[in-house]
């Protein structure tokens, strides 16, 4: 246990910001009090580091934080570090004292002592005292010195003036950490502005020549001259040199002098010392990246690096050395790819060395992956030379063997090693590193294909002399070559060179003839790569009729495993699209139906099943015989029918319902069946548009689909979210393709959707599907009553009634989106009679949208703003079409009246939506909406609509809103500036909008935000959001919104 926390002397309120630190060694506190405080500090530090109970460590931490905040911490820490007491305090206590000083110096919450020079002297005493102490203590003392030099007036010069008194180990460490303050992360070191940091950098670099002289002298010292082992001293010299290189110590140095600098030679020679190898690599990599003159000098050293350093490291499998040298060589090559492309002996030595690094086999792929950017840079450099010049031909000819060998090395490293062995067949069977390596290879493989030429690239991949017997095929080689072939498909197709697919078809025939029992898990990775090839080159592969059957059988085999199902299902769809001239022949159709019937087991992803159904639907739509086409499509639809029918039957069989496992399985199969039906109807919509499907076929499919779906929507299974979503999605797809057949069912369907929503109010799919129905048929006047009844039913739901605060909006973003989409469709599509009859509900929906625009959830806020913009669009359209004020029974009058009543609440919520961290994402939509609002008010001002809405309305809303914003959100005097500025930019933006909506401008300038006024409005709103992003985000509810009409 630790002692109870002592009572720290409370600082005088008037002087606590600046503690007075006397000279080192003098008493800063009462002499009788200091030993007790030091003892308590020692006990607290010991408890923090060594106590077994968490509560003891927590208590110690709280006490130490309190001590650190106290002004007495300065003197206490200095007395521990600088006094020569014997015995010396413990290492933990000394480290804490140094760390506490560093934190107090760095923190903007504490001011430096009045006499910072004395604190500097005390820290230098500590650095001398502990120059051979554990490194972490000396580092903390030096960090405190560096932080003090950054903040104190004349700190750099004062520090350098005192440095000669420091022992070499302490001086090396101090010089190492000083430049790090130049690039110190300001997020972790607040209180120092950029100007101060730039001044510090300039003052520091004035001493760079002296520092480099010191480092050179240190590098020439004999072993153990200062009690530090030679390898350790060299490591420290390189660390220090690295810090100064990063700070720019060689800036302005002539290229010849820099290349021949003794410290550069010292760093290069340090590559042969294992202890200093990594930091030497960092030094040279930093130099190459900063100074464009150096790559030439380093390129001349490549033969030495290759022969003396790299080849032995490869032979000894020293991955640390190989990785470091690879990094350096890549940096040299990327810094000057033009030099490498000249093809000198040194450049070819660099290329050969990096080829060996790519081919080096290790447990991960980091070494090979680190070279990819260099090879891309070199390839781009060569390809960038003018094609017509002899230089391009000579360079390309010189590097063809290099890139050919590179392709071999990449294929070797990209192999899946255990593909011929037994494995699980999951995607996770492939190491994450290999997956990432393959993803990053695409750009380089395309470059290699361009350099070698498409025919040579293809020939290299497909001419490996594999045996014809399937037992002797090295599948891991085949798989990686198919992967490399699929990655460059666009390049090869664009090239258009002849392509002999006989090798591909040979393997396709072997794979399509295998039964699942003959395949282990990882061999399905071969199916995946072949599936990608088939999908990429389907147009060429399907040009031969003899290829179609084996290709379809191959896809059927690959679809059966999850790892290859996506690539094979996509390949199937592309084959059916590209082979439409003979895909509808009976033997081919039999295979397609066999594939579709195999989906009933539910082993595939829903997305893959939809791809398969789309493929088969496309094939069936190309059947020339109308009767056969109709029966075939009905057969395909019925293959999913039984899955849905079974779940309906469960309603009549309580035993099945009580078996949770069987019921869950039946639900899953039904959901998949519904998705497949939706995919079929989605594809049919395209075929109907192109005239491939006649009305008789649609009638047959409708007669199969709707009775089944009607039963399902009336069952209790709709409680299941996945099932109801799938049912609504398939219904929406069917409505889109069979619109006229659903028209007479509109009242029944809308009633079904609205009643289901009342039962299952978290299921937003009912709202979305109702929106689709209204978009399709809502414009017909005979359905006005039905549409009104639907919006009334939806609005009565508790889930929508409860959307009265920004907090509840954050909890239901999907529901908000669906509700906004439905009401938008209602306003856009329904007749005026429906709008007039629903005015109170539309006003309520507008109020809710205004509240939702302040939600933290970005999607919910943006869709709410979009819905309000829809209000403005419809209102502006009606006012522009009828400048004379119409009767209260018109759509425009209803909408403008709603806006007039809700305008103050809208403006209030817009301002609050632009406060806090999430405001920037709303700037564009908010600016667009406000521009439309200003345009509407400006337009009404000039017409007979002025009695309902006018420019003064907008001025009043803005005045009231800004006046009501608390000082928590606005700076002093800001309110007086906002009102005239915003009114001016709103007026200009309104003119832009109205100009874009008149005459030919409506066609020529659809993007009204491009106008000068619109851009200015957006900039003003962005500036407001930027300057208020750190204010607390307000919580908005219905009591704050639309106050005029709710009060």
From TrEMBL:
InterPro entries registered for this protein in UniProt: ARM-like, ARM-type_fold, Exportin-1/Importin-b-like, Importin_beta-like_NTR, TPR_TNPO3_IPO13_2nd, TPR_TNPO3_IPO13_4th
GO biological process, alphabetically ordered: protein import into nucleus
Organism: Aegilops tauschii subsp. strangulata (Goatgrass)
GO cellular component: cytoplasm
Location of the Exportin-1/Importin-beta-like domain: 135-283
UniProt-recorded name of the protein: Exportin-1/Importin-beta-like domain-containing protein
PANTHER family: ARM REPEAT SUPERFAMILY PROTEIN (PTHR12363:SF44), TRANSPORTIN 3 AND IMPORTIN 13 (PTHR12363)
Pfam families documented for this protein: TPR_TNPO3_IPO13_2nd, TPR_TNPO3_IPO13_4th, Xpo1
């Amino acid at each position: 246990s630790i002692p109870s926390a002592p009572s720290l002397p409370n600082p005088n309120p008037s002087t606590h910001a600046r503690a007075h630190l006397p000279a080192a060694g003098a008493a800063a506190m009462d002499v009788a009090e200091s030993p007790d405080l030091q003892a308590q500090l020692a006990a607290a530090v010991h408890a923090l580091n060594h106590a077994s109970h968490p509560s003891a460590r927590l208590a110690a931490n709280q006490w130490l934080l309190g001590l650190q905040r106290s002004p007495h911490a300065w003197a206490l820490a200095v007395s521990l570090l600088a006094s020569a007491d014997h015995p010396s305090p413990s290492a933990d206590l000394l480290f804490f004292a140094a760390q506490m000083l560093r934190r107090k110096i760095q923190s903007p919450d504490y001011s430096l002592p009045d006499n910072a020079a004395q604190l500097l002297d005390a820290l230098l005493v500590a650095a001398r005292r502990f120059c051979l102490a554990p490194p972490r203590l000396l580092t903390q003392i030096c960090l405190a010195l560096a932080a003090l030099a950054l903040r104190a007036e004349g700190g750099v010069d004062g520090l350098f003036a005192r440095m000669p008194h420091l022992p070499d180990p302490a001086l090396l460490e101090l010089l190492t950490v000083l430049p790090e303050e130049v690039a110190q992360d300001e997020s972790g070191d607040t209180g120092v502005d950029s100007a101060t940091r730039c001044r510090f950098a300039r003052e520091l670099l004035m001493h760079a020549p002296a520092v480099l002289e010191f480092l050179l002298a240190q590098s020439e010292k004999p072993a153990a001259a200062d009690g530090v082992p030679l390898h350790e001293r060299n490591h420290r010299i390189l660390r220090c040199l690295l810090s100064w290189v990063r700070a720019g110590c060689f800036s302005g140095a002539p290229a010849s002098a820099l290349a021949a600098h003794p410290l550069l030679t010292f760093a290069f020679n340090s590559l042969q010392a294992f202890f200093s190898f990594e930091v030497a690599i960092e030094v040279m990599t930093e130099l190459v990246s900063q100074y464009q003159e150096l790559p030439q000098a380093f390129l001349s050293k490549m033969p030495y690096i290759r022969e003396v350093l790299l080849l032995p490291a490869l032979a000894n499998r020293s991955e640390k050395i190989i990785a470091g040298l690879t990094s350096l060589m890549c940096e040299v090559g990327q810094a000057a790819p033009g030099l490498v492309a000249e093809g000198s002996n040194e450049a070819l030595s660099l290329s050969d060395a990096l080829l060996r690094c790519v081919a080096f086999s290790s447990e991960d792929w980091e070494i090979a992956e680190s070279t990819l950017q260099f090879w891309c840079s070199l390839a781009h450099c060569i390809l960038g030379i003018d094609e017509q010049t002899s230089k391009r031909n000579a360079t390309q000819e010189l590097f063809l063997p290099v890139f050919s060998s590179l392709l071999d090395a990449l294929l070797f490293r990209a192999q899946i090693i255990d593909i011929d062995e037994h494995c699980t067949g999951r995607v996770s069977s492939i190491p994450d590193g290999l997956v990432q390596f393959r993803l990053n290879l695409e750009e380089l493989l395309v470059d290699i294909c361009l350099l070698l030429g498409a025919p040579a690239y293809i020939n290299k991949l497909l001419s490996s002399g594999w045996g014809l017997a399937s037992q002797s095929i090295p599948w891991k080689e085949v798989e990686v070559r198919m992967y490399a072939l699929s990655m460059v498909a666009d390049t090869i197709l664009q090239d258009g060179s002849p392509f002999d697919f006989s090798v591909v078809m040979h393997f396709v025939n072997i794979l399509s003839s295998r039964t699942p029992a003959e395949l282990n898990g990882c061999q399905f990775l071969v199916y995946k790569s072949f599936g990608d090839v088939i999908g990429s080159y389907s147009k060429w592969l399907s040009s031969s009729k003899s290829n179609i059957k084996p290709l379809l059988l191959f896809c059927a085999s690959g679809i059966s495993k999850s790892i290859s199902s996506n690539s094979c299902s996509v390949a199937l769809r592309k084959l059916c699209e590209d082979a439409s001239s003979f895909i509808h022949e009976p033997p081919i159709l039999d295979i397609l139906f066999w594939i579709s019937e195999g989906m009933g087991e539910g082993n595939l992803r829903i997305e893959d099943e939809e791809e398969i159904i789309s493929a088969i639907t496309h094939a069936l739509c190309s059947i020339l015989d109308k009767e056969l086409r109709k029966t075939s499509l009905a057969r395909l639809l019925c293959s999913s029918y039984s899955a849905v029918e079974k779940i309906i039957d469960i309603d009549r069989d309580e035993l099945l319902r009580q078996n949770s496992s069987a019921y869950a399985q039946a639900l899953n199969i039904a959901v998949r069946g519904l998705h497949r039906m939706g995919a079929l109807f989605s594809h049919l919509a395209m075929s109907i548009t192109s005239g491939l499907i006649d009305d008789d076929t649609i009638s047959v499919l409708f007669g199969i689909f709707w009775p089944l779906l009607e039963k399902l929507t009336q069952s209790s299974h709709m409680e299941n979210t996945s099932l109801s979503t799938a049912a609504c999605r398939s219904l929406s797809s069917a409505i889109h393709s069979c619109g006229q057949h659903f028209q007479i069912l509109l009242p029944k369907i809308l009633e079904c959707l609205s009643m289901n929503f009342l039962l299952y109010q978290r299921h937003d799919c009912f709202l979305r599907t109702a929106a689709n129905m209204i978009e399709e048929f809502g414009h017909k006047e005979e359905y006005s009553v039905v549409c009104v009844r639907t919006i009334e039913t939806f609005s009565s739901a508790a889930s929508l009634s409860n959307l009265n605060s920004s907090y509840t909006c954050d909890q239901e973003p999907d529901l908000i989106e669906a509700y906004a989409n439905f009401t938008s469709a209602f306003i856009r599509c329904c007749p005026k009679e429906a709008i007039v009859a629903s005015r109170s509900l539309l006003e309520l929906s507008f109020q809710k949208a205004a509240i939702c625009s302040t939600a933290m959830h970005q999607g919910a806020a943006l869709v709410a703003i979009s819905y309000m913009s829809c209000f403005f669009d419809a209102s502006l359209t009606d006012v522009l079409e009828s400048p004379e004020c119409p009767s209260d029974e018109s759509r425009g009058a209803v909408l403008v009246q709603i806006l007039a009543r809700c305008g103050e609440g809208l403006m209030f919520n817009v301002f609050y939506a632009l406060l806090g961290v999430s405001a920037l994402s709303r700037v564009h939509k908010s600016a667009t909406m406000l521009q439309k609002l200003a345009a509407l008010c400006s337009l009404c001002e000039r017409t007979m609509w002025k009695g309902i809405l006018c420019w003064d309305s907008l001025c009043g809303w803005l005045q009231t809103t800004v006046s009501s914003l608390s000082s928590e959100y606005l700076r002093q005097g800001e309110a007086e500036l906002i009102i005239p500025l915003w009114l001016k930019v709103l007026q200009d933006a309104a003119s832009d909008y109205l100009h874009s909506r008149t005459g030919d401008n409506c066609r020529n300038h659809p993007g009204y935000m491009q106008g000068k006024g619109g851009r200015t409005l957006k900039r003003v709103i962005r500036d407001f959001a930027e300057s208020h992003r750190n204010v607390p985000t307000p919580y908005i509810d219905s009591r704050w919104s639309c106050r005029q009409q709710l009060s």
